[in-house]
Amino acid sequence: MSDNYNGLRVVGILGSLRPGSYTRMALNIALEGAAEVGAKTQLLDLSKYELAFCTGHDQGSYPADVYRLKESVRLAQGIILATPEYHGSFSGVLKNALDLMGFEEFATKMIGLVGVSGGSMGAAGALASLRTVGRSLRAWVLPDQVSIAQGGEAFDQSGSLKDDRLNDRLLELGRHVARFAYLHASKEAHEFLLAWEESQPNPGG
Fold first, then answer.
1. Is the sign of the CA dihedral 173, 179, 183, 185 positive or negative?
2. What is the enclosing helix (H) or strand (E) of 192?
3. Is 45 exposed, middle or buried (0-12, 13-18, 19+ CB in 10 A)?
4. Which residues contact 4 (CB under 8 A, 6 or more apart)?
5. Could you report the per-residue pLDDT of 48-83, keeping only the tens digit for each?
6. Check: CATH 3.40.50.360 for 3-197?
7. Alpha-carbon distance 31 to 138, whole Å?
8. What are the boundaries of each domain within the chain?
9. What local confidence, expressed as pLDDT, does residue 60 receive?
10. pLDDT (tens digit, 9 = 90+) per residue, 33-55?
């Protein structure tokens, strides 16, 4: 654990309401990666919040849980969005939660993306949609993301991934969210830019 990361907060927003959710299992692993490098982590389970549908006119009329969620996200420097893929996109409950928030919660924050699909094609559609939303919220969306296909077969009964490579990718995603959030908040802007550029190899050579 690094003392440099003391006070750094990474939250994971769970976009699944299903008991025994595979998305929750994946998010737990990603948050474990963030905690490994010293970040304080919190899983925000949307099923535990009373969230009204977004009306676009917030005048203090929403349930208290809306403001509780907004405050938890506002205080974080890094955010992991985890969703199941439904009909080629991310979950409605996550979309509503994001609609209830805005620049104050997301602008300049580091975002990592995790998607879980019941099918064999993975969650590419959901992750692409989330990436667009993240950019619209003026956040830094990390170039690496994790898509898990056939979630019902990917995890064992203890909630662990059967594929060690996928497990390592989730851990690394969590580490990257914490690391880039720390660098972005530090005075080492040059180090941040270099690390961002080198985070993924150039497929063009």
1. positive
2. helix 189-197
3. middle
4. 38, 182
5. 999 999 988 776 789 999 999 999 999 999 999 999
6. yes
7. 22
8. 3-197
9. 74
10. 999 999 999 999 999 999 999 98
- Cα(126)–Cα(115) distance, rounded to whole angstroms? 7
Q: How many helices and strands in the chain, by DSSP H and E? A: 8, 5
Residue 116: strand pairing partners? 84, 148
Q: Which amino acid is at 176?
A: H
pLDDT, tens digit, 9 for 90 and up, residues 26-35: 999 999 999 9
154 contacts 165 by C-beta, under 8 angstroms: no
Euclidean distance between CA atoms 155 and 166, whole angstroms? 11
Q: What is the mean pLDDT of residues 169-195?
A: 82
Cα 40 from Cα 34, distance rounded (Å): 8
State the residue for tokens 């990603």: 30
